[in-house]
């Protein structure tokens, strides 16, 4: 995948299909989206830095999503080199759109676990929720007027449901178990910006 333009070869798309749920046509479509912003260094595959990744993300999901996209980038950048190549990009997209609940939960846990400690703190939940609210153009006054909770209020409620062993942090097992009792923490990551986001919030605010 060293080319900067054109289509992927049949061999390349077939290789990628072994790891993702997309069709060959969908892979080609994502490749075209990817290379519009990708950089190429001498001897390397095309890649996105955080800056370019945010640009691509905002193209697909219009809105004030810069802070949220930074967190998405972190989960896509599997080797932590500050770059996302096309395979990492496609693998990340495949997981976030997967119908397999366990995969989505694993990804959601990684997203909330900002410092990659293996545990989630209340402050980390607040930071992610604030980014999601910002992407949807919601602030404290607008959420209150709409009868929705603030990020801080939602984080406290979620933390109370999920944190069960008294150590003031959420482990993977607590997260997985808690998500079955309160789906909001994952639902907010899956819904589209705008009316769908507010509908999910209102549903859980009842």
UniProtKB/TrEMBL annotation:
Extract the SUPFAM superfamilies matched here: EF-hand
Superkingdom, natural source: Eukaryota
**Which keywords, in A-to-Z order, does the entry hold?**
Calcium, Lipoprotein, Metal-binding, Myristate, Repeat
Indicate the segments forming the EF-hand domain, all copies: 64-99, 100-135, 150-185
Query: Which SMART domains does the record associate with it?
Result: EFh
- An example Gene Ontology molecular-function term: calcium ion binding
Q: Name one Pfam family in it.
A: EF-hand_7
> PROSITE patterns from the entry?
EF_HAND_1, EF_HAND_2
| Family according to the record | Belongs to the recoverin family.
What protein am I looking at? Answer: EF-hand domain-containing protein
């Amino acid at each position: 995948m060293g080319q900067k333009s054109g289509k992927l070869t049949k061999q390349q798309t077939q290789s990628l299909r072994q790891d993702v749920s997309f069709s060959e046509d969908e892979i080609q479509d994502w490749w075209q989206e990817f290379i519009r912003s990708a950089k190429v260094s001498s001897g390397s595959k095309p890649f996105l830095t955080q800056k370019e990744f945010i640009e691509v993300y905002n193209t697909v999901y219009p809105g004030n999503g810069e802070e949220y996209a930074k967190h998405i980038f972190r989960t896509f950048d599997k080797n932590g080199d500050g770059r996302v190549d096309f395979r990492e990009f496609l693998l990340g997209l495949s997981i976030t759109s997967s119908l397999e609940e366990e995969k989505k939960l694993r990804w959601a846990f990684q997203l909330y676990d900002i410092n990659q400690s293996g545990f989630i703190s209340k402050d980390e939940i607040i930071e992610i929720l604030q980014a999601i609210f910002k992407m949807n153009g919601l602030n404290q006054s607008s959420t209150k007027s709409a009868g929705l909770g603030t990020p801080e209020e939602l984080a406290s409620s979620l933390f109370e449901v999920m944190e069960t062993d008294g150590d003031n942090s959420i482990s993977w097992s607590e997260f997985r178990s808690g998500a079955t009792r309160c789906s909001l923490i994952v639902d907010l990551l899956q819904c589209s910006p705008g009316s769908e986001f507010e509908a999910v919030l209102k549903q859980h605010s009842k």
